Amino acid sequence: MNASTSPFVPDHHEVVIIGGGQAGLSMSHYLQKIGARHVVFEKHAALHSWRTQRWDSFCLVTPNWQCNLPGHPYAGDDPHGFMKKDQINDYLAGFRRQVNAPLREGVAVRRVVPRPQGGYEVHTAQGEQVSMCTADQVVVASGGYHVPIIPRLAERLPAGIVQVHSEQYRNPQSLPDGAVLVVGSGQSGSQIAEDLHLAGRQVHLAVGDAPRCARFYRGRDVVDWLADMNYYDMPVHQHPLREGVRDNTNHYVTGRDGGRDIDLRKFALEGMQLHGLLAGLDDGVMQFEPGLSAALDRADQVYNGINASIDKHIAAQGIEAPPPSVYEPVWQPDGEQLTLDLRAAGITAVVWCIGFRPDFEWLDAPVFNGRGQPVHTRGVTQHKGLYFLGLPWQYTWGSGRFSGVSRDAAFLAERIDALRELCPPLSMAA
């Protein structure tokens, strides 16, 4: 048989990693240690979301010392500070150089299919060029935040109102002059609302059910206290909510200007207009659910509850620390504004900060629940050789963060290596 009629033999890898963010590069770090032949497919550029999906004043909300990617811990002179966007990207660029992964950028994975004889087909596209390779094992390291959530009612907003998702927001100057409606009060929503508020913009904030926590308490960063209390080492199966904690909204707090609380009540005293959950839109008038007071109260209860747990720790360990305190509300809603006429309020822009949804439609394997979320135990699925990495609370609080993804990647590398020993690489003649 001559070369022109030879059957096509696709490239084969022991492991394919899908996603070139901190999770994918962490996985590559450990696969190199065990000598596993692998490739990392990234549809954009490696670590692109940190450069392209963060606003200009973005900074970490956890102290720099928690940045502990494999082989690349934070080595700066401000471990208890909070790196800004450019500093974060410098840190990540150093991590990329250190890992030196077999990375293929601009390659989108279109479909992953289990093979009858074992292993997987991985179909990719690079521009107009499509191709297929095979792999013994696959690690999905693309995270769980894929598709920006924007409600369908956005289609009925009055013409002329600029709409951006949180991933597109850059700074107050990027929005037209006038008042801004921010929808969602999680980490992104609260920080973007603060960014606009500090710039002197009139802000309306639709408040959700996000909890909050103190930045500093009894002389230390709350993160430092919680680390001493081993909270960040608690596995998901020991959390009171078990896997339900994966659905929780992150606590809002900020590292801006050296770190501080975010207190929506204080913002309200200063002129920010707070509303309840967005409920609907009718002829240019936004409608909100009642319950703003209850939402603020719940956030404060979590704030005080975390501090109370720190009080117990301090007492139990006999630690000398400044005296305890309890947050008392500085503002209470005087009734609730359940409607907002966008034109009359001078709203010129809406920033949607209600998160993302996962999109794993390209993964043709029965490993999802009814909501399209992966079913796994510490990243290991029931489908042999298929894993996830970098998901929120995959194993601990830090699983999707710089602080914990290394531990998860090391664990998966052990599982991958064990399967290599049991099942040597598949013969492509099979």
List keywords for this structure.
430 residues; 2 domains; 21 strands; seven-stranded mixed beta sheet; FAD/NAD(P)-binding domain; 8 helices; globular; five-stranded parallel beta sheet; alpha/beta
Descriptive overview:
- This protein is an alpha/beta fold and 430 residues long.
- It folds into two domains: 9-146 and 358-422, FAD/NAD(P)-binding domain, CATH 3.50.50; 149-352, FAD/NAD(P)-binding domain (3-Layer(bba) Sandwich), CATH 3.50.50.60.
- The protein is built from eight helices and 21 strands.
- Strands 1, 2, 5, 6, 7, 8 and 21 form a seven-stranded mixed sheet that branches.
- Helix 1 runs parallel beside helix 3 (85-99) and helix 1 packs across helix 8.
- The longest helix is centred in the last third of the chain and has 26 residues, at 292-317.
- The two termini are 19 Å apart.
- The model is unreliable at 1-6 (pLDDT under 50).
